[in-house]
Specification:
With 200 residues, the protein is an alpha/beta fold. The chain has a single domain, classed as NagB/RpiA/CoA transferase-like (Rossmann fold).
């Protein structure tokens, strides 16, 4: 997944443009690698993409998010106790109160096709997206990238043979005026940071 490094370089956009103009409009489109496709669509949706190579970079980036938003010593809505323990040293008050400053959570998958985040009752219990805080910080790893929603659903089914989670939804509205699909219907726009850890 070293492609993320390449993708984050400042000249990537111009390289991509020049590649596109080399071919006529009738030339078949190149299929983007899954990580590039997700990054492009996620950024297009208005998400804040923060790629980290190790846990030290995750900690530093999380610290910067807290400073940028003045979230130190504030309440954090976090259902996942294991994740909460990883982010203990920031004077945060972990709570089940949905009126908290932000929602900290893992996810099921990162969907490349539309740049969305796949969630289920494992992360949000039976709550609807509009019942959660307006600010999200999602922690994920590069191994969670999938091509499509159906692939993400298949992984959930395979991992949860005894008890398939309910309340499966996607979040992809990170800016106003974005189109909604049936998976995100009824959700409000979220200010979303994605902390993505390299694990491949």
């Amino acid at each position: 997944m070293g492609l993320f490094k390449r993708l984050l370089r400042s000249n990537t956009r111009s390289v991509y443009k020049s590649k596109k103009t080399d071919h006529s409009k009738y030339y078949p489109e190149e299929k983007l690698p899954i990580d590039e496709k997700f990054t492009y669509n996620f950024n297009k949706n208005g998400g804040k993409f923060l790629y980290c190579e190790n846990w030290e970079e995750i900690s530093e980036t999380f610290d910067n998010i807290l400073i940028e938003n003045d979230w130190y010593e504030k309440e954090v809505f976090c259902i996942n106790d294991q994740l909460a323990s990883k982010f203990e040293g920031y004077n945060l008050n972990f709570t089940k109160n949905t009126e908290a400053s932000f929602f900290l959570s893992p996810c099921e998958s990162l969907v490349a096709d539309n740049g969305s985040i796949l969630l289920s009752s494992n992360q949000i219990r039976e709550k609807k997206l509009h019942e959660l805080p307006a600010n999200f910080v999602i922690f994920a790893t590069t191994s969670q990238l999938v091509e499509s929603i159906s692939e993400g659903l298949r992984i959930i089914k395979n991992q949860s043979k005894q008890h398939i989670p309910s309340n499966i939804t996607t979040i992809q509205d990170f800016e106003n005026n974005t189109e909604k699909d049936f998976m995100s219907y009824g959700s409000r726009t979220k200010n979303l940071y994605l902390l993505l850890l390299e694990d491949l």
